[in-house]
Write a structure and sequence with these properties.
210 residues, mainly alpha, two-stranded antiparallel sheet, 4 strands
């Protein structure tokens, strides 16, 4: 029995004929795939606890579609591959590099949000929720800290890194001499905790793991 047959009609168009068994198997596979998607954990309601991220006291229930999962995955990758959604080691990490990552993440997140069609945000509650949380993480988490500390610390660091008494110090040693280091560190840890929780939420929305 032929599984499939390829021929040409009178107009030289390619004609592909599948055997009934192959056609039936194809239909069953497609139906099974649809059933798996329908019962997938990704189609279940998930919950975003705003208190965990530090941007509010409510809980948002979402039911992500594949477009939402793609958005969440892009943000999750950014949070996981930069020094953003990972715990800061104030003895080993260069805070200048941490600030570079935070600033880049701010720009990238804003860019992702701007690329979303307005009608999609209006029509889809989950997309709207993801955008809402992303904007609040930027405006209530990153922006206040960056506004207060980043330029002040960068300016101090730039001046002191070329001073004779400091040229042989490592970035980690020098940054601890910043006059307001402890206050900056305390605020930085607060934002860092928010971003770590935010990364966990984006991970749940995109790949399902907690």
């Amino acid at each position: 029995m032929e599984i499939f047959k390829i021929s040409f009609d009178e107009s030289y168009n390619i004609v592909v004929v599948l055997s009934p068994i192959i056609l039936l198997i194809t239909i069953l596979l497609f139906a099974g795939w649809r059933l798996v998607l329908k019962s997938s954990r990704f189609t279940e309601n998930l919950e975003i606890d705003e208190a965990e991220i530090g941007i509010g006291s409510g809980k948002i229930k979402v039911k992500p579609n594949y477009g939402d999962m793609q958005i969440a995955y892009q943000l999750y990758v950014e949070l996981s591959t930069r020094k953003i959604g990972l715990k800061i080691d104030f003895d080993e990490d260069s805070l200048i590099e941490v600030y570079n990552s935070w600033y880049e993440f701010f720009k990238i997140t804003r860019s992702h949000i701007k690329e979303l069609p307005a009608h999609k945000i209006r029509e889809n509650k989950t997309t709207k929720a993801i955008v809402k949380v992303a904007i609040e993480v930027l405006n209530e988490g990153l922006r206040p800290h960056l506004t207060k500390w980043q330029s002040r610390f960068r300016k101090w660091y730039e001046i002191n890194s070329i001073e004779k008494d400091h040229v042989h110090k490592s970035p980690q040693e020098l940054q601890k001499e910043f006059p307001e280091f402890n206050k900056m560190k305390e605020d930085m840890q607060k934002v860092n905790k928010q971003l770590i929780e935010y990364r966990k939420v984006m991970k749940r929305l995109s790949i399902g793991d907690k």
